[in-house]
Amino acid sequence: MSTPATETVNGDTTLAALAHASALVASFLGPILFLILADDGDELVKRNAKNAINFQIIVFVGLMIAGVLSFVFIGLLLFPIIGLIDIVLALMATVKANDGQVYTYPFTPDII
Fold this sequence. Notes:
The protein has helices at about 15-20, 25, 30-35, 45-70, 75-100, and strands at about 5-10, 100-105. By secondary structure, the chain is mainly alpha-helical. The chain has a two-stranded antiparallel ribbon. It is elongated, with a radius of gyration of 14 Å.
């Protein structure tokens, strides 16, 4: 079991926070944009954007599983739960990134 870990890193806190917040609007495309826009030496933005992308991939997989399970009505219960978890964790990550911390989402492996 992994737990959310935070580490303070120097960098552009606004772009790091927006990398997480953009995931609420544009799923994994928003964090990819901020990963591309990040300066070469801006470790804070890069690490937060990668963590946001990894989490959005996990959310996407969860939604696909819920879609398959909706044929037996279990998935219909999972859709709002996954959505609520996505919103709450993305907002928590946004606040942590705005404080200059690298937020690692719980139960999210490093895919990228």
